[in-house]
């Protein structure tokens, strides 16, 4: 019995992103489309997200412009096919603190947000370094930390220290320290509720951007190839990828990358708001497919 | 000094403009004065931005019950040093145009809010909720002031977009191929 429906929801994209940013060391290999997404997890009485995208307001709008991001759509538009409003979201698991994953904190007013304590404390430490270290602040919007403070005041921010099993029944948070960022985490959904699970989905955040990071682009002789951006260590990133594949029962197709345009080739999908993709990973017994109904 | 975007703007009565210069000359002078001021004020702005970031981080560490002894005390010390630096460099920036004076006014407001927040962070080893709320208000007000600055004199962005993957996209925008 499947407990949760899981859908990957594109909310905007970059039309041309350098391949070298996706696959470490792949220079001069052109560009590719990079979709930005968050993942909707629905249970019987549960609405949760992995990440929140970014808000196209204030500095988020500046980032949209300067990153050349296209077709940004609000959560209300993106969630509409599910009959879900942003106010309905109860839990958000933040994979890491980059603006395109955490910048939309203010968009989900009733949610409780879970982030690794190390991600926040390292971010704060990074901010305290002098200007020579400012590269470390890349892809971060300092305004997000003020939003995080506001959430903490309201009791809506949970700082997770290490792994957290059953944050919701059958859902685990697993840290991958010093990889893409200092306190990245991935989400394991054990859809049979068992441990170990034979029906697990691993929602990877940016520990893998695309399928090629899981197999090096070589299906016959796969190897782990890290993403282009690691504030931590590429070695640790590779072992985190291995851990995620193990958590998915050895099935690489159940490790879901954070920026993969080819999800639509592997899973049922349809167009949602203004041409953005909805990808259906699985459907719980209590729900109907949003793909087949179209 | 009062400006139109102050909270008490309804009480603002503009003084008569007694200076009369040829428009072109005045415009050139203003641009030059703004540029000089921007260069002189940059260090103070960076110090304010740094202090605001660090104080925000301190507050977050307190509110999330992270180990304050590890980071927060050292962070507040850094913030205090930055605020001293900001105060000193702001006093050296010559605000000769109306824009520059307006800009300097908001920088001083930000400085005041941040000094207040820093004082509170210093006094409280473990912030009680009410103190945290007051500190949050002061820091938020400081960020609001800092965000106004770039509209008055350019070159005062609170987010550095020239780093990391941002830099790539900026290049792409400037040099499409």
Distinct helical segment count of chain A:
9
What is the number of helices of chain B?
5
Number of domains in the coordinates of chain B? 1
Q: Write down the secondary-structure element order of chain B.
A: HHHHH
How large a portion of the residues of chain A is in β-strands, by DSSP E? Answer: 25-35%
Task: Kindly list the characteristics that best describe this protein.
heterodimer, A: 294 residues, alpha/beta, Metallo-beta-lactamase, Chain A, 9-stranded mixed beta sheet, 5-stranded mixed beta sheet, B: 177 residues, mainly alpha, 5 helices, 72% helix, disordered C terminus
SSE topology sketch:
The complex is a heterodimer of chains A (294) and B (177).
Chain A: E1 5-18, H1 19-22, E2 31-42, E3 47-50, H2 59-66, E4 69-70, H3 75-79, E5 91-93, H4 99-102, E6 112-116, H5 117-127, H6 143-153, E7 157-160, E8 164-168, E9 171-177, E10 183-190, E11 200-203, H7 212-215, H8 234-247, E12 255-256, H9 263-266, E13 269-271, E14 277-282
Parallel strand pairs in A: 3-5, 5-6, 6-7, 11-12
Antiparallel strand pairs in A: 1-2, 1-4, 1-14, 2-3, 8-9, 9-10, 10-11, 13-14
Chain B: H1 23-63, H2 68-92, H3 98-123, H4 129-152, H5 164-174
Explain the overall architecture.
- The complex is a heterodimer of chains A (294) and B (177).
- With 294 residues, chain A is an alpha/beta fold.
- Chain A has a single domain, classed as Metallo-beta-lactamase, Chain A (4-Layer Sandwich), CATH 3.60.15.
- Helix content of chain A is 22%, strand content 27%.
- Chain A has nine helices and 14 strands.
- Chain A has helices at residues 19-22, 59-66, 75-79, 99-102, 117-127, 143-153, 212-215, 234-247, 263-266, and strands at residues 5-18, 31-42, 47-50, 69-70, 91-93, 112-116, 157-160, 164-168, 171-177, 183-190, 200-203, 255-256, 269-271, 277-282.
- In chain A, strands 1, 2, 3, 4, 5, 6, 7, 13 and 14 form a nine-stranded mixed beta sheet that branches. Chain A has a five-stranded mixed beta sheet with strand order 8-9-10-11-12.
- Chain A starts with a strand and ends in a 12-residue tail after the last strand.
- Chain B is mostly helical and 177 residues long.
- Chain B has one domain: Four Helix Bundle (Hemerythrin (Met), subunit A), CATH 1.20.120.
- Chain B contains five helices and no strands.
- The longest helix of chain B is centred in the first third of the chain and has 41 residues, at 23-63.
- Chain B starts with 22 loop residues before the first helix and ends with a helix.
- The relative contact order of chain B is 0.13.
- At the A-B interface, strand 1, helix 2, helix 5 and helix 6 of A face helix 1, helix 2, helix 4 and helix 5 of B.
